[in-house]
Structures are given as structure tokens and as C-alpha cells.
């Protein structure tokens, strides 16, 4: 070693620093890389992605080979720095100490901090580049890797710790939702909205989207036959609830298409009873996603929503649930038509029965949805009384004016929103 030229020692030290930088960057890149993107590219036949995925499936061995290589290289760097200092400053202890500090500083800057920052910012490219040499080193150093892992496993058992056998990289529903939120710029806006709406189905219940009972179009089986025939011909839905005595007593669901195949004189109460289907009752607290599955399993498209006492609250259809995912259809009846009337002064007139969720989605508002389901209900809860027309208030940062009240409810509301 005494005969080795200083230039070779300098070159060897620089090579050690560069190699240490490779191991440090490889460790950061492998841990920071997006595993799902790697898996996707690997399925498409990307060779570097396949190598990277193979390494990531054996994380303990990957970390062992990186740490073995980095430890050996850093030890060699310290040895080389000592040799260089001895050659330059023989017998000078201060110079030897200074050389050690300089090498430690060089390792910190050039072999640790800088490569790790670069690897964190360009994790995918760095991981692809490092995957090939790491696989080769894993084969060459396998006995050492096996020995290190053996001692590590023994130490973990001694400490009575257990390795987490579950997939640590599996995402929870909330984490998946956050992932979709952050991926909005990579997909079409409509697709992005649909994906986000799917995550909401488990937290929204049927009473959030149902048609309230006072808005239900239904057939009175005890009414005049001519009136029933006229209603069937002029109805706006393909399925209608049928009641007897009072509108809350639903006794069946009638498919209008079956009735239209009959002659007018064949349509009477007896024939309607024969053709209608028994009603399908569901509790108001049923999550939309669960109800969507129930519709599929029961082969139904309409359900009567009841509360905990069995009282009818409204009606929900398969289309109501699908609209929460893909947006509104254009097949609504005039009674359910446009509830947002824009005014020349920039304000909008709203129906008091408008759903808070619909308003939040259409007008990008922030009304609370964990209490009352309609705008009328929210205002009544705020006042704990029925306000007079002309009353103004502020709810969730929005200026609201009561325009018309009728039948113990608020019928028309003016909203002075700045950004709608």
C-alpha cells in the first residue's frame, strides 16, 4: 500500500463516495417509488418495472444488500482517508482528525443527502436504473444477505416482535378516495367525478336521495275508474305506487307498460290489483351502495322508504341511485324539473324542497348534510319556527331570503351566492 500512488488513492476514494451515493439513492428510490404504477407498467411488459417489482416483493433482502454494500463502501472510504492523511501528514494527529471530519462531511453531502434528495424527486427513474445492478449484487452477496437476515430475524424474535404479515401497501377506502382526488388531472373530468361519487355511496343513505312522500305521483285505487284511466295515460313515470284509503298506505307497484297493452274498458280496479306487484319496503337508513346491491339481488327498481315506526317517508328508485354516480338524467317529470331559476341580479330562486346534497353538487355550496335533507328543513331547524316571507338569514356563509311560505313549509327561497 505504501507504493500506491496518491492519485490512485484519491481515485479510489472518489469511487467509494460515488458507489455509496448509488446505494443511498437506491434505498430512497425503492422505498419512495409508486408501487401501483410499477405494477401497472410491469403488466404492460416494461422490463425495468418488472425488475423493480421483483426487488420490492423481497424488501428485507433488498434492504440487506443495500446496507451491506453501503457499510462496506463507507468503511473503505474511512480507511482510504486515513491512508491519504498518513501519507500527507505523517505523525500529525490533528491532520488525521481533520481528515476524518472532511471524509464524514463528504459522505454526508455527496453520498447521503444529495443522492437521497434526487432519488426522492425522481424515484421511478432512479429505481429503474438501480434495479439491474441491485439484482446482480443480490445474487453475488446472497450468502451475506442470508446471514444478515438470519441474525435480524433472531433479534426480532428475542424482542418478542412479530413481522407484519398483512399487506402494508393495501389502501383503505378513504386512502383510495384521496388517491382519486389527487389523480384528477390525469383523467377526464367526468370519469374523475364518477369515481369520487362511487366512494360516497357507502356514506349516503336512501333518505338523502328519495322522493319525499308529498311529491310522489301515485294511483288511488279507491278513486273513480275514469280518473284512474286518465292518470295512467298522462303519468310521467313507468312505475307508479298504488294506495288505498290514504296515500301512505301503499299496497302495490304498477308497471304502466303492462296497462297500456289493455283496452281502455279493460282497465279497472280489479285488473289493477291483478297486475300490480307487491311493494318493496326498505328502512330510511339504508346506505345507497347496500340498496344498489339489494335492487340487484331482488330484481327490483323501486322501493318504498319507511322510518323506524313503519311510516312511509318517500320513494327511491334505481335511477335515483345511479344519478348519484353519473349525474342527473333528462327523464324527470315536470314536477321534478328545474328547481334553480337564475335571476338578472345574479341570485337564484330555489324550491324549498330542494335536496341539500343536490344544491351542494350543482352550485358548489357547503350546506351541512348530516341533519335535515332539504333546504326547507335546514331553515326550519335554524329558526325552530316557520319564518315569514321576506325574512333574511345567513347559512353556511350564504345569504338567503324567504320568498314564499305555504302549508307550514317554505316553498320559494332566494339565494344570493357570489360564485354560482
TrEMBL record:
<keyword id="KW-0812">Transmembrane</keyword>
<feature type="transmembrane region" description="Helical">
    <location>
        <begin position="94"/>
        <end position="111"/>
    </location>
</feature>
<feature type="transmembrane region" description="Helical">
    <location>
        <begin position="131"/>
        <end position="156"/>
    </location>
</feature>
<dbReference type="Pfam" id="PF01595">
    <property type="entry name" value="CNNM"/>
</dbReference>
<comment type="similarity">
    <text>Belongs to the UPF0053 family.</text>
</comment>
<dbReference type="InterPro" id="IPR046342">
    <property type="entry name" value="CBS_dom_sf"/>
</dbReference>
<dbReference type="InterPro" id="IPR036318">
    <property type="entry name" value="FAD-bd_PCMH-like_sf"/>
</dbReference>
<dbReference type="Pfam" id="PF03471">
    <property type="entry name" value="CorC_HlyC"/>
</dbReference>
<keyword id="KW-1133">Transmembrane helix</keyword>
<dbReference type="InterPro" id="IPR016169">
    <property type="entry name" value="FAD-bd_PCMH_sub2"/>
</dbReference>
<feature type="signal peptide">
    <location>
        <begin position="1"/>
        <end position="26"/>
    </location>
</feature>
<dbReference type="Pfam" id="PF00571">
    <property type="entry name" value="CBS"/>
</dbReference>
<keyword id="KW-0129">CBS domain</keyword>
<dbReference type="InterPro" id="IPR005170">
    <property type="entry name" value="Transptr-assoc_dom"/>
</dbReference>
<feature type="domain" description="CNNM transmembrane">
    <location>
        <begin position="2"/>
        <end position="193"/>
    </location>
</feature>
<protein>
    <submittedName>
        <fullName>HlyC/CorC family transporter</fullName>
    </submittedName>
</protein>
<dbReference type="InterPro" id="IPR002550">
    <property type="entry name" value="CNNM"/>
</dbReference>
<feature type="domain" description="CBS">
    <location>
        <begin position="275"/>
        <end position="331"/>
    </location>
</feature>
<feature type="domain" description="CBS">
    <location>
        <begin position="210"/>
        <end position="269"/>
    </location>
</feature>
<dbReference type="InterPro" id="IPR000644">
    <property type="entry name" value="CBS_dom"/>
</dbReference>
<feature type="transmembrane region" description="Helical">
    <location>
        <begin position="62"/>
        <end position="85"/>
    </location>
</feature>
<keyword id="KW-0472">Membrane</keyword>
<keyword id="KW-0732">Signal</keyword>
<keyword id="KW-1003">Cell membrane</keyword>
<dbReference type="InterPro" id="IPR044751">
    <property type="entry name" value="Ion_transp-like_CBS"/>
</dbReference>
<keyword id="KW-0677">Repeat</keyword>
Amino acid at each position: 500500500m505504501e507504493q500506491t500512488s496518491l492519485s490512485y488513492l484519491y481515485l479510489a476514494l472518489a469511487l467509494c463516495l460515488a458507489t455509496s451515493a448509488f446505494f443511498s439513492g437506491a434505498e430512497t428510490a425503492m422505498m419512495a417509488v409508486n408501487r401501483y404504477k410499477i405494477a401497472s407498467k410491469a403488466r404492460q411488459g416494461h422490463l425495468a418495472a418488472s425488475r423493480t417489482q421483483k426487488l420490492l416483493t423481497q424488501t428485507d433482502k433488498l434492504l440487506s444488500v443495500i446496507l451491506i454494500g453501503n457499510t462496506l463502501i463507507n468503511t473503505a472510504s474511512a480507511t482510504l482517508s486515513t491512508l491519504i492523511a498518513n501519507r500527507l501528514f505523517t505523525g500529525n494527529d490533528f491532520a488525521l482528525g481533520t481528515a476524518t471530519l472532511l471524509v464524514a462531511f463528504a459522505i454526508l453531502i455527496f453520498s447521503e443527502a444529495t443522492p437521497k434528495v434526487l432519488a426522492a424527486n425522481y424515484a421511478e427513474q432512479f429505481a429503474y436504473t438501480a434495479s439491474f445492478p441491485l439484482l446482480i449484487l443480490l445474487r453475488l452477496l446472497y450468502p451475506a444477505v442470508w446471514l444478515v437476515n438470519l441474525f435480524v430475524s433472531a433479534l426480532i424474535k428475542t424482542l418478542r416482535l412479530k413481522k407484519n404479515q398483512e399487506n402494508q401497501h393495501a389502501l383503505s377506502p378513504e386512502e383510495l378516495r384521496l388517491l382519486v382526488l389527487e389523480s384528477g388531472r390525469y383523467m377526464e373530468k367526468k370519469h374523475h367525478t364518477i369515481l369520487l361519487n362511487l366512494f360516497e355511496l357507502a356514506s349516503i343513505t336512501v333518505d338523502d336521495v328519495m322522493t319525499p312522500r308529498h311529491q310522489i305521483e301515485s294511483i288511488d285505487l279507491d278513486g273513480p275508474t275514469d280518473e284512474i284511466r286518465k292518470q295512467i295515460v298522462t303519468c310521467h313515470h313507468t312505475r307508479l305506487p298504488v294506495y288505498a284509503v290514504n296515500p301512505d298506505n301503499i299496497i302495490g307497484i304498477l308497471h304502466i307498460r303492462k296497462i297500456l297493452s289493455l283496452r281502455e274498458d279493460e282497465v279497472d280496479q280489479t285488473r289493477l290489483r291483478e297486475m300490480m306487484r307487491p311493494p318493496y319496503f326498505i328502512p330510511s337508513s339504508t346506505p345507497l351502495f347496500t340498496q344498489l346491491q339489494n335492487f340487484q339481488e331482488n330484481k327490483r327498481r323501486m322501493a318504498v322508504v319507511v322510518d323506524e315506526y313503519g311510516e312511509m317517508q318517500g320513494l327511491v328508485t334505481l335511477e335515483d341511485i345511479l344519478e348519484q354516480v353519473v349525474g342527473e338524467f333528462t327523464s324527470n317529470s315536470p314536477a321534478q324539473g328545474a328547481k334553480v331559476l337564475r335571476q338578472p341580479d345574479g341570485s337564484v330562486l330555489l324550491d324549498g324542497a330542494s335536496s341539500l346534497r343536490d344544491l351542494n353538487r350543482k352550485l358548489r355550496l357547503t350546506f351541512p348534510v348530516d341533519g335535515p335533507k332539504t333546504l326547507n328543513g335546514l331553515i326550519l331547524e335554524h329558526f325552530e319556527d316557520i319564518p315569514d316571507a321576506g325574512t333574511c338569514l345567513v347559512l353556511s356563509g350564504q345569504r338567503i331570503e324567504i320568498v314564499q311560505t305555504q302549508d307550514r313549509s317554505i316553498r320559494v327561497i332566494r339565494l344570493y351566492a357570489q360564485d354560482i
